Structure formats: structure tokens, C-alpha cells
Amino acid sequence: MKKIIAGTVMATALLTALPSSWPALDGHAYAAAKKNTAASHYIVNVNGNLMTVRSLHRSGTVLLAGSDMAKLFSADYRYDPKHQYYEIRRTSPNIRIVLQTGKKAALVNGKSISLSVAPQRFGQELYVDAKQIAALLGGQWKAEAGVAIVSTSGSFRPFRETWQVNGSTATIHGLVLGQTSFYSVNDVAAAFGATVHVDKKTSMVKVKKGNRTIIFNPFSYVLNAGGKKTSLPTAPFIQNGVPYINLSAIVYALGGEIEEQERFIATSGFIKGTSIHPQWINQNTLLISRPDEASSLLLDIRSRTALRSINEMDLTLSPDGKKAAYVDENGHLFVIDLVSNTVQQIGEDDEVKTDLVWSSDGRSLYCIYGSNNEAVAVVALDNGTITKIIDDKVKYKTDLRLSPDGTKLLYTVANEGKTNYTDDQRTDVDSIDTSGTDPQLILVDLSSPTKQPTPLTSSSDNKVDSAFLSNYDIVYVSATDDDMSPPSLKMIRNGVEQTLLDKQNIIDMAVVKSRIYVVVEANGLYTIRCFDPSTKSWKIIGRTKHEITSIAPSPYDDQITVTMATDGGENVSLLRHGSWMNLTK
């Protein structure tokens, strides 16, 4: 079967070949009266690709070259000199058309049919009625605005799709030519609050939104957006007065961005740049950190837009999602009311405070306290009073956690190594003894009068991502410095340690109430798994080939946010009902 032989043709070159009058290319319309036969060329939009075909004007009727028609439909074309007939044959659909010069009848798969216009010969070429031949070859031919629109596979198929535009539902209509979809510019413009004007004389389409103007026409692949020209992947066209175009092209030209798989359009584009540490304010809103701007954002996951920007980072969200705390570079503690957007400094203490943890009632904050992280303290938010709970002078406490009922604290501590010197003045280090410095989990019972730190572990492994379950069991990720020994997930119940997941490449772990979530990497595939301690069973929640760096399950429903590594930094994505969507770029 012959293939379509045509390349991309620039609009200026095409326009120079067009006649001064514009008959519709359907084989029935008439141009200015012409007694003499004349051959010319016309633009044809075939499934979104601009091509030219030879045309014949005889007594006002416009016919198209039969061999060119065959090429458009990937059909064979031949002339039988013995029987003096022309044959167009296509295998899909299986069709054989036999034509003769001047006869208004044709054989189609051996059956005689009437032709609306008799084929005419000019030179060595037979010229035919394009509209009827296109239909016989299994397609559709229609002309408007000086350009013939051709579908080589079936008729133009109208469709309507439901899209989310900034989180709101919108219906966008379109047409399918062949296998290519084109979308109504009118519908897209309405979603953006833009206007559309089609010049009846020139067929120029102008879309205007505020100070942004977009111009294109059906004779060209070029789209001009605010003076910047871009190439369209398919040529636009006009049908019944409505312009149709590639959806992504018009969305980006209007200043928006699109996620086609999710059918989501952000009219102002997506939030870009590194985004980390997502925290759930409620089931529709996240608090995320923006290290590139040293700020934070309240992100609406429905519209994927920023509700508010906060000029601080490393915020710790309160249990009710209404407030967030942070410590500035001077050691001062602040609380932001996310509802009123007001900021309050808590006391005047300027000592180092890290690992902020809210009490369940939101009235106080626990923290690792001191320049060497040697104490655990609680700050009363009503008056700024600081009370040291643990002041054992053991340095480098980290990973402070509070049990769900607020009665127990958990943290990790590693003792300092012993430094041996060669002289009494301790100016020359001989060696450092690191024995006994392995990090250990420490539990503090706040209901006890003594509040003594109680070691829970004594093993030599590293212990990270520790967390309380709702039944007060403790889980953590156990890792070693040996690259050949992957981490394990362990749980401590009533002082007894057990392994829940052994020797897996655990990237991150998080706990929501009684559920344990882990991200495990294997062979470049990142899998999110959930463990239910009551049934002791694992369930796969989702998978992706993109590199997940952290996980934050929602406490409100089954949604899970993750951070993913990209070439431009980390972004925040959402896993919902097994489907992924990018919240930031």
C-alpha cells in the first residue's frame, strides 16, 4: 500500500498557490465563472496535517486529483489503458473504486453507484469529486474557511470530556479526525475567562485574556502568543464557526498547564520549584516547605494552587491543623495562626530548641532543648514558661516523639565517644573510643513523678523514623552502616522486639494511628506498603518508577502525599485510589 507522501508546508508557501476566489472544496460549490479549465493547488488538513492537492476548475466546479486523493487515504491508484478506467483501492476498509472520464457512475466493489459529479481528465490526471470519494474510502471531507478538513478514518467524531479546571468541573467539546483529537477553542477559552474572535474574511482566530493575545489561523502550524511564536503539533481548523486546536498548545499559550492523563488544567500553571515536608492541615489542604524561597505554602490539593504563602520554613503543624510553630535563627519560639494569619512570639527565651512536638490539646510544645541538645523541655504557650523534663546532660538527643495520649515521650540518643589525648594539656588527640555510642531509643513516662529516661534498646544498629502506634507500641527502622545489609522495620511491644519487615531497602516510614506505611525500593521500582498490626498483614497501596524520598499519609482519609526527586528538585505528589497526580512541579 502506498503511504501518504507529503511534508509540512509553510503557510506562506501555501497561500501563494491559492486562487484569489475561495470555492468550498466539496465538489459542489462554485467560484467565479470560468469558461476555461484551470488547474491549481489547495490546502488540505488531513487528520491535523497540512498538505496540498491539485485541483481542477471547470465551469465553476472544483474537482481534486484522483491520485492525490488516493495518497491522502493511503490507497493505491492506477490507470488501466486497455479498458480506459481508473482504479482506487484501499485495504482498510476494503474498497475498490473504478472510475471513467465523463461518466457519472462508478463501480464500488463491483456494484454500480451514481456520482454527483462526473470525473474529468486534465492532462494525464483524472479529477474527481473529493467529498464523495472520501466517503467511499471510509472517511469524510468537509470544507470551511478556505481549508478542506479530512478524516481518513471514519467521519468527524464529536466528543465531550469532563476536565478539572483549577479543581472545578468543566466540559470541553471536541472533534476526532482520523485518530487525532482536536478541542473547542471556545470551551477552553471559557474555562480561562478568555474571549474568542474569528475573522470571517481572513479566518484568523484571536483569543484574548487580559493583556495576553493569541493568534493563529487554519493555514499554518504557527501560533503567536503575545508575540512569541511556537509550532503546533497539528494544524488547527474551523468547523461550523468554531475553531479547534491541540489542547495542550492552547492551554500553555493561555498561561496554564495541563495533566492530560488526569484531565486537569491549572489556568495559572502549577507550583514550581523544590517542595518538601508536606503536612495535612485538613483533607483538602497541605502545608509544604519551599527551601528555595525559605518559605512555606498552604496548598489546596483540589485546585493545586497556593492559598497563602508564609515567610518561614520548618513549620510544625498543630494537631487540629489550625496553628504552626517554628523557631527563628535567634532561638525565639513563634506560633502562627493559620486561620487569621497572625504570628505570636512565645516568651523571650533564646536557647536552641529543636524537634518541636505539639501536645494533643494544643496548649504546649515539647522540644529538644539546649545548644548541645542535652535536655527535653516543655513550653507553655499561654505564658512562655519553659520547664525542663529531662536534664541529664546527655548530649545529642534527637527524634522527639509524643504518644497519642500524651503520657509518654520517646527520643533517640547516642553517647559521646571517649577522646584519649597524648598529653596532660589535652592538645593532641591520640584516639577516640566509640564503643557504647550506638544510638538508642529512650522512653520517658510523663505520668511518673520521677520521669526517668528508660532505655528501650541496646543494639548497635542505627534507629531512625521512630514512632508510636495508637496502642503505644513503638516502631522504628533499623539500619547499619553496611551497604550490603538493607534496613529492617522493627516493633517493640511490651518490651519485646520483633521484626515486621526484614532486610528491605526502606526509604521512609510513617505512622497514622494504627497503620504503618513504608516506601520500599527494589530494582528501581518504589512501592508503598501498609501494615495492619491487628491482622499482621501487609497491603500494597501503590507503585511508581519515580524516586520517592518521603511519605506523608493523610490522617483524614486514604490519600497519601509523597515527595519525589526530579531534575529540578523535589516535588509533592498525591496517591489517591491507586492513581498518582503531581501537586507541584
Helix content: under 10%
Number of helices: 5
- State Rg: 36 Å
- Describe the sheet with the most strands: 7 strands, mixed
CATH topology of the largest domain: Neuraminidase
Q: What CATH architecture of the largest domain would you give?
A: 6 Propeller
Q: What global shape is seen?
A: elongated
CATH-wise, what's the superfamily of the largest domain?
TolB, C-terminal domain
The CATH class of the largest domain, by name, is: Mainly Beta
Distance between the termini: 45 Å
Give the number of domains.
4
Number of strands: 54
List keywords for this structure.
585 residues, 7-stranded mixed beta sheet, single chain, Copper Amine Oxidase, Chain A, domain 1, mainly beta
Outline the fold blueprint.
Blueprint: H1 11-16, E1 38-46, E2 49-58, E3 61-65, H2 66-72, E4 76-80, E5 85-91, E6 94-99, E7 105-108, E8 111-114, E9 120-122, E10 125-128, H3 130-136, E11 140-144, E12 147-151, E13 157-165, E14 168-177, E15 180-184, H4 185-192, E16 195-198, E17 205-209, E18 212-216, E19 222-225, E20 228-231, E21 237-239, E22 242-245, H5 247-253, E23 257-259, E24 264-266, E25 276-282, E26 285-290, E27 295-300, E28 305-310, E29 316-317, E30 323-327, E31 333-337, E32 342-346, E33 353-358, E34 364-369, E35 375-380, E36 386-390, E37 397-402, E38 408-413, E39 418-421, E40 429-433, E41 440-445, E42 453-455, E43 462-468, E44 474-479, E45 488-493, E46 496-501, E47 506-512, E48 515-522, E49 525-532, E50 537-544, E51 548-553, E52 560-566, E53 569-576, E54 579-582
Parallel strand pairs: 1-12, 13-24
Antiparallel strand pairs: 1-2, 2-3, 3-10, 4-5, 5-6, 6-7, 7-8, 9-10, 11-12, 13-14, 14-15, 15-22, 16-17, 17-18, 18-19, 19-20, 21-22, 23-24, 25-26, 26-27, 27-28, 29-30, 30-31, 31-32, 33-34, 34-35, 35-36, 37-38, 38-41, 39-40, 41-42, 43-44, 44-45, 45-46, 47-48, 48-49, 49-50, 51-52, 52-53, 53-54
Keywords: Signal
Protein name: Copper amine oxidase-like N-terminal domain-containing protein
Domain Copper amine oxidase-like N-terminal: 47-143, 165-260
